Amino acid sequence: MTSAAVELQKAVYATLSADAGLIALIGADRIHDHAPAHLAFPYVTFGRSTVSDWATSTEDGSEHIFTVHVWSNARGKSQALEIMAIIGGLLHDAELSVAEHNLINLRQEFEELRYDADNDVYHGTLRYRAVTEPAA
């Protein structure tokens, strides 16, 4: 069986990269697990991922906490906030197809946008909680 965390990230990537509105805003090939050096802004990256046992006495399961990061060097917060709103709309309560696993739920728990003066960019963080179980 494949890793639920890997398959969940693949499903999130597929959902984000298939959205015409998001791609129109950030551009093609701007969603990365690890951003290449000198990537033009704006872009989206996957951040921290934590998996915990969520099994019951009768069923296996995993709890996933993961982050999606938004990076923008536009003047002002608007562009980053718009990207974050699109991502939030796509993922919160989404019914994603996760290979070899059932996605029980996917909820946005937190969002933050801050200005990084050292790099002259806005950095948005969206944190999600998902629960998966192996498919029967």
Structure description:
A hairpin with an 8-residue loop joins β2 (43-53) and β3 (62-72). The chain has three helices and five strands. It has helices at 4-17, 20-26, 78-91, and strands at 31-32, 43-53, 62-72, 101-116, 121-134. The longest helix has 14 residues, at 4-17. With 136 residues, the chain is an alpha+beta fold. Strands 1-2-3-5-4 form a five-stranded mixed β-sheet.
Architecture blueprint of SSEs:
Layout: H1 4-17, H2 20-26, E1 31-32, E2 43-53, E3 62-72, H3 78-91, E4 101-116, E5 121-134
Parallel strand pairs: 1-2
Antiparallel strand pairs: 2-3, 3-5, 4-5
Observed structural traits:
about 140 residues; alpha+beta; elongated
Kindly summarize this structure in a few lines.
With 136 residues, the chain is of the alpha+beta class.
Helix content: 25-40%
Over all CA atoms, what is the radius of gyration? 16 Å
The averaged pLDDT comes out at: 96
Assembly level: single chain
Apparent shape: elongated
What proportion strand?
A: 35-45%
Q: How is the biggest beta sheet arranged?
A: 5 strands, mixed
The H-and-E topology, N to C, reads as HHEEEHEE
Find the count of extended strands (DSSP E, 2+ residues): 5
Number of helices, where a helix is a run of at least 4 consecutive DSSP H or I residues: 3
Secondary structure category: alpha+beta
N-to-C CA distance: 11 Å
Low-confidence stretches: none
Strand order of the largest sheet: 1-2-3-5-4
